[in-house]
Sequence to fold (307 residues):
Amino acid sequence: SHLTTVLRALHDNQVSIADLIEMILKRPEPQFESIHQEMTKDIKMICTNLYNDPSSHKDMLNWATSAVCNAAQDELHMLARKQHSLHFSATTVTSEQLEGTFSAVCNAAQDELHITDLMNVDAVVFGDMEGDLGDIEERMDGVESDDDDNDEEEEGKCNLKRQKKSQRRVAEQRVFLLNIHAVVCMSILLQNTNAQCNYLQGILGVFFHSTCVPQKVINVLNHTGLLILQTLINHAVKSMSREIASHIRSTVRSLKASFAYDNFDINFKTHQPTIEHHSIFTSATSATLIPLFGVEDPNDLRCSAEL
Fold:
């Protein structure tokens, strides 16, 4: 047969199948182009047959796992570079850096680096996930058509349209949840690759500070890789406070703002008052800066002489 002839020729020339494939891939001559295209076209079938063969199943699985891990690791190292804006410097952070979303930055980096392998790994991990979708399933149950009303054709069509619309919404919600999980996993892997690549952890740190999350919770999330240290959170808050204070001063100097004052009282009560430690009643005045929109020229506000 042809197979026997080919195998005998390979044996006589002391060429293995692996050597034959390597030589075909490395030869740039035109006469090898057709066999090269034919082999690459059937690469999936070749790998599938090797994976399904009992004698090569384990080796093929180990190779595929190693290849995926290496590709994902290379993409992580590329994405963790400073040029991709995923570094969060707590001492120099500004409010503008928090206006963008982590997923938007990742999508921009994905378009630039084509990090499809890393996203595919997350899709495989969470693709068959059924947990945390209770809300979606309840919505699906709430829009099921009533079997008793299937007698009328128009009502049946309406029920079918509603069901398809609900299924589409459920699919969109599922993709949204999978993207969230992928972004969180990527952020943890990125921080493990580069400690300064902690964009999501920094945003969550500032958010948790604004919501007065307890210190113990912050420590736990920091150990899981989802949050930066408490000291870095304090540095970020101080950095943004300096920026906001500078912005307020420049706004006041521009004369395009006015102040609203309000008096308020605070009673600092002592749990067990004594002569030395007694309750304190404080009266204070707060000032709120209100920007004046629509004022292009500050000279328009110089109306004292006219008044």
Confidence is low (pLDDT under 50) at residues 129-134, 136-150. Residues 102 and 200 are 6 Å apart (CA to CA). The longest helix spans residues 153-193. DSSP finds 13 helices and two strands in the chain.
